């Protein structure tokens, strides 16, 4: 997953990171996008739908945990948000494609 400069900058601003460790942060963001998609389903990290925005929030939170060497605590701490997003993504997909199977 290609992480754009704008996504990187948004994360750095959120975390108040002013020094340059962009390669590491891009890698962590990319891993987090892959993991959240694996847990919840497809979303557009740059999209404006409710599910896209909630997914981006989870990506940022997981990246924050990974950055602070605590990623093993992320899923337990955000289980309800992960589950809720996953269900909403499935329901959204079923609305778009009623013949889809789960």
Number of helices: 5
Q: Tell me the span between the first and last alpha carbons.
A: 25 Å
State the helical fraction.
55-70%
Low-pLDDT residue spans: none
Strand content: under 5%
Largest sheet: none
What's the SSE pattern? HHHHH
Mean pLDDT: 94
Count every beta strand, where a strand is a DSSP E run of 2 or more residues. Answer: 0
Q: Measured on Cα atoms, how large is the radius of gyration? A: 14 Å
Structural class by sheet pairing and helices: mainly alpha
| Coarse shape | globular
Classify the oligomer: single chain
Could you characterize the architecture of this molecule?
The two termini are 25 Å apart. The protein has 5 helices and no strands. The chain has 102 residues and is mainly alpha-helical. The longest helix is centred in the first third of the chain and has 19 residues.
């Amino acid at each position: 997953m290609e992480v754009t400069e704008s996504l990187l900058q948004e994360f750095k601003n959120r975390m108040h990171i002013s020094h340059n460790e962009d390669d590491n942060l891009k890698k962590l963001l990319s891993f987090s996008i892959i993991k959240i998609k694996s847990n919840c389903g497809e979303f557009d990290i740059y999209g404006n739908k409710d599910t896209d925005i909630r997914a981006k929030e989870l990506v940022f939170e997981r990246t924050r945990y990974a950055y602070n060497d605590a990623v093993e605590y992320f899923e337990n701490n955000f289980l309800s948000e992960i589950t809720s997003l996953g269900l909403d993504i499935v329901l959204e997909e079923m609305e778009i494609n009623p013949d889809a199977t789960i």
